[in-house]
Amino acid sequence: MDIKEYFARISYQGSHSKPDLATMSDIFLHHIQAVPFENLSIHCGERIELDLEATYNKIVRKKRGGWCMENNYLLSWVLKTLGYDVTLLGSKVYVPELDAYPEEIDHLLLRVELDGKSYIVDAGFGMAYQLWQPMELISGTDQPQTPGVFRFQEENGIWYLEKVKRKQWVLNPSKSTSPIVENEVCRRVYLFTLQPRDIEEFRGCNAHLQTAPDSLFVTKSICSLQTADGIRALVGWKLTEIKYNYRDNMDLVEIRMLADEEIEKTLREKFNVTLEKKFVPVNTSRLSLF
Description:
It contains eight helices and 14 strands. It has helices at 3-9, 21-34, 52-61, 68-81, 179-182, 203-209, 216-219, 260-271; strands at residues 37-38, 85-93, 107-114, 117-121, 135-136, 143-145, 148-155, 158-164, 167-170, 186-192, 222-226, 230-235, 238-247, 250-257. A hairpin with a 3-residue loop joins β11 (222-226) and β12 (230-235).
């Protein structure tokens, strides 16, 4: 594995001689705008391996994306290679339709200690809840970013990530979003503790999420990429493009349903993803990703 090859993959040409916040933030933004959050392997008959070299080969050399256990595992290697103090953490992702969190951890994120402060670094959430910058680990303080206002709330040692949602101007309204999600003002994204984790603790989760019949990742094919001013996401056959803060604290949303013959070209042109095996789109879950 070669850090220069990784930098070329994310088109990063900045300095990396000093492990400071500015460098980490710049690398982070380049990563999320170059590497999609995607689970397409599941829908191509491929297995997602919890192996650093396999992940490096997939994301850096094959120019694919990945989910949290790929993006953040790779980013942990990048940051450690550059001299950052990185700890793996596990979180539980909130399901608004159920108003609940899962019993077991189902998301990998990173904690970075830097100049006496702690930061949460998460390049593997995707969609409209993807951070665009590392977040300082402090409770109750709004941390505005391009996608919206994020904040942490700490209660009895449990940390909650929240995002304040903007209003949306939808050019072609879709009825597929649940009323619960549409009426949200603030979304709890996930909860976590500061208990350090080993990558082996995610092996069961990695297997379950790509095989369980009721897993969101089995019932939805997902590919999302952060852009210069928003995000684009292909979920099943539905292509959603969002421009953040288009006007008056409002996001511009455009939704289009694709035909089967448009999928491969869309993945290539809008996400820079070319698949080696036949891809079968899926979207049978009622859970919303927005």
